[in-house]
Amino acid sequence: MITVAIVDDELFVQKSLEAYTRSVAGDTVSVTRAGRSVAELIAGLAEAPDVVVLDVFLRDGTRLRDNIAQLRAWGSAVVVFSRNDTSPELRWQAKDAGALGFLHKDELDELPAAISAAASGELYITPQLMRFLLMAKLGLTRRQEEVAGYLGAGLSNREIAEQMSISEDVVKEHVWRIKERYQKARRPVADRDDLRFRLRDDGLYEDPPPP
Description:
Helix content: 40-55%
Strand order of the largest sheet: 2-1-3-4-5
Shape: elongated
Number of domains: 2
Number of strands: 5
């Protein structure tokens, strides 16, 4: 049985997460307590739960990095939950601080699996997190990531230039830089088609724009 606690300063979200976790995880998870802050949670429990599901933003003025560090020092693994923000910076901050999962509200169906992985000391990788980690490994800029997304969707240089309001020469430069980044990551691509297939395999593509 995995023991779980929830930290969120909105009672409705606390109860919703608690009810959802119990309904989908069944007998494998026991939700022991919910708190509005890390300090309140620790004060209310005699021992640390296996996993704490932690809201990204708490109104008590505490920082995400510090909350994760405090919970880990207490003995709990941490899965971070966000209702609004999915920025790469926050994901990186959470992972760097030692969180073993980062879920957005749209990924709530993955919460039981994330809890199970965290309880085993394993990092839980969602498709969004996988994309972010790959971006971090490749070291692409935001503009290069945008070009990569359109390229993976099958757009031509001219179409990408129109979508981004830049010249085709600038697009070509970005494509060359993306290929260079893959080369440095020891995942070389032979040509544009090979790059497009690699981007799709890696999940780095956007849905084609409407006609």
